[in-house]
Here is the input.
Amino acid sequence: MRRLSKKKALSLVKELDAFPKVPESYVEATASGGTVSLLAFTIMAVLAFFEFFVYKSTYMKYEYEVDKDFSSKLRINVDITVAMKCQNVGADVLDLAETMVSSDGLEYEPVNFELSPQQRLWHMTLLHIQERLREEHSLQEVIFKSAIKEVPTAPHPSEEIPAPPNACRIHGHLYVNKVAGNFHITVGKSIPHPRGHAHLAALVSHDTYNFSHRIDQLSFGEEISGLISPLDGTEKISANSNHMFQYFITIVPTKLNTYRVSAETHQYSVKERDRVINHAIGSHGVSGIFMKYDISALMVKVTEQHMPLWQFLVRLCGIIGGIFSTTGMLHGMVGFLVDVLCCRFRIGIYRQQKEAPLITQDDQKDPLYTDNSTLS
Here is the structure.
């Protein structure tokens, strides 16, 4: 009984075989079929090879949510060179609540405003990258993937230039509240007082005003080597001593999670405006560099992801099965059309054979056989 049940089970499994085996004696191999098979296998191999590189590469996934972190501090990273001496300029932050933030984290370094050939080459390269980023937004994903969380280096190496310093490099970082504020660089050192703050501009000669500047770095959040902000590399040259430069910045908190770095940084967009201060024509204001920033309520999560293995296997099976089936159908269709075209030239022969059937000797020996030609 067990043997019978096993035989029945095996026969049932054989009946469920969806891949019937054809004996080799029933299969006809042709040169055209071999050519198509070779071509199909080549296409399969090439597409599978490129599909492996697609599986190996990664992509960035963007998610949006409300930023609920209001208690933390916002870090501002600054590296700006102003074409004035350090004793004549001062930088600080005044937020929306009229709270003056201490600028102890900023350093004032006397430098030359003119760049050396090596520094100018780096600056031109950075400007070219910024130009390409405005046209090719997908390059931002490449920058995210190349970001490394380490101690950042200076944008360009400082070199000894045989000339007295005529500019001031203001660099460092500040921690401010996560509210709108105004980071500005203007004439004179800042002094706090109960109603806000003021700058000792009266002690600086008006002839020394020159707010031509170069922004080597202006970023928010953690410093991440490899990330490029929109204002990095900006250079403004003013021919007038009374000049106001304004930058209106919208900051978007960003959580970056890649295979190389995991950090909380900030992206931002910026609008620029500059004008000459001339009270005689109604253009009022204060000469200097003003960066008014505001923080968006939305937060962006940027995550580097990899194609799952099961998806890669499904795509690979689709490529192999699709090409195999398609080439088989195309080969059968072409063969059918060739047979039809070849048979058109043999229609006359088939008709003669049908009208005058072949008579064998066995038919002549048949007693019921009559020769229609003799009867006629």
The first strand starts at residue 58 and ends at 66. The first helix runs from residue 2 to 15. The chain is about 30% helix and 30% strand.
